[in-house]
Write a structure and sequence with these properties.
Elements lengths: L15 E6 L7 E8 L13 E4 L10 H11 L5 E10 L6 H18 L3 E6 L2 H10 L7 E3 L6 H9 L3 E4 L10 H6 L6 E3 L8 H12 L3 H16 L3
Parallel strand pairs: 1-2, 2-3, 3-4, 4-5, 5-6, 6-7, 7-8
Helix pairs in contact: 1-2
Pfam family, one: TatD_DNase
GO molecular function, one term: hydrolase activity, acting on ester bonds
InterPro entries: Metal_Hydrolase, TatD-like
């Protein structure tokens, strides 16, 4: 779904924003499909919004220069809203220096394209923050997708300028995600389904309850963030 204006447009009360998913979901949802560069076919670009990046899991499937070329070629497509997901993962066998090189190359390209970064980060937040601090002139927003860390980590990331996107972990009572959500300012917040078999409206309902908001107010906050961060509005 695209954002429409005029008398026939859906009201904010009717619309969910899902900034990171791997398949299309329900009606009345503005969603951004995450596509890996290894699967991207420029002859069949998506009809709706999408992000495009070289995931650290796929560094053995495609070299960085090939991936950067695909992202750059897609950069003029108005439906390409972000670079990623990309990032760092200390739970896989790929050496972290190799991951870091691919990630920093995508940071540079995101700056050139003026697109936000959708970041995958697992057990590498210290390194991620170090990279952020070493690139102080970066202007594009950095968004941690699928955040399920503790409140202290959330506050640390927010202090360093990150946005946080929460997903299915909000439905898990054993996760720290709910506590972290409560420490996240409304203007740094996004919600997503990722690859989970859960509806975006269930995630919004859980988040609204945790934040003490009604659903309409939460959707308004996230719509405002989406327009500012992804549409430069």
């Amino acid at each position: 779904m695209k954002i429409e204006t005029g008398p026939d447009a859906l009201s904010l009360a009717d619309v969910y924003i899902n900034i990171h998913c791997h398949q299309t979901g329900a009606n009345q949802t503005i969603e951004m499909i995450s596509i890996g560069t290894q699967d991207f076919d420029t002859a069949a670009t998506p009809d709706g919004f999408y992000s495009l990046g070289l995931h650290p899991w796929h560094l053995d499937q495609e070299d960085t220069q090939t991936a950067l070329g695909k992202i750059s070629a897609a950069g003029m497509d108005p439906n390409l809203l972000a670079v990623g997901e990309c990032g760092l993962d200390n739970a896989i066998a790929v050496p972290l220096p190799l991951q870091t090189a691919a990630f920093t190359s995508q940071i540079e390209l995101a700056e050139q394209l003026r697109k936000p970064l959708i970041i995958h980060c697992v057990r590498a937040f210290n390194e991620l923050i170090r990279i952020k601090k070493s690139t102080p002139n970066v202007e594009t927003p950095w968004i941690i997708h699928g955040f399920n860390g503790n409140p202290t980590l959330a506050e640390q990331l927010i202090r360093h300028g990150f946005y946080l996107s929460f997903g299915a972990a909000l439905l898990n009572p054993r996760s720290h995600a709910g506590e972290a959500l409560s420490r996240t300012p409304f203007d740094r917040l996004f919600l997503e389904t990722d690859a989970a078999n859960v509806s975006i409206d269930a995630i919004y309902a859980a988040a609204a309850k945790m934040l003490g908001l009604d659903n309409v107010s939460l959707r308004q906050h996230i719509m405002s963030n989406f327009k500012r961060v992804f549409l430069n509005d």
